[in-house]
Amino acid sequence: MASIRVLIADSQALLGESLSILLSAHESLTVVGVAADLKSAARLAAELHPDVIVTDLSLPDGRGKDLVACLMAAWPQARLVALTAASDDDTVTAAVAAGVQGYVLKCRSTADLIQTIQVVAAGGVMLDPAVLPIIWRRFQQLIRHEKVMSEAFSSFEHDVLMQLITGKSARQIAEALASSPATVERAVTQICQKLHARNRAHAIAIALRRGLISAR
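The structure assignment produced for this chain is given below.
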């Protein structure tokens, strides 16, 4: 089996070097580089093409979701493992939303980190047990929000949504629903506001994704 190529990014030089030694000692891992800042990490990612990037979420020149986005842009094929001391709701959810596939707290053992790297490299996702309740709470909040948004539509707004998906104009929808174009336009505006959509097309995409309407 090919060795997993790992890039480490951490602002603490001693920790980065120590991690390199510890991970390199494992037969399934090869550390291809160590970086102390985001700029260096992005450059090494683009040059060395690691399978997994193990990174702190706070580097001297970048942090959080912007840091994750930069590393993903530098080498999109890499999988990301956040190795951090941060376990607050905002940091965790922002990192997961940005695209990290692994999340390990710095208080964990080397064995925990290695296991996470292996799982993530194989295409899986592995989050620290301490942050799982945060992800679950945010998931429940999202489901409740979508349910509220679904229930918040009036019957007329729902009918307008169903007409919008066919590509009809406001005038055509008004004729189909025995209403006026102005009333339809107001309903479309309300729908976009409730779904936080930029425009009609975006509203349709959101509604389809959430199962609020059916393409059939």
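Interim note for the steering committee: The chain has two domains: 4-135, 153-209. The mean pLDDT is 89.
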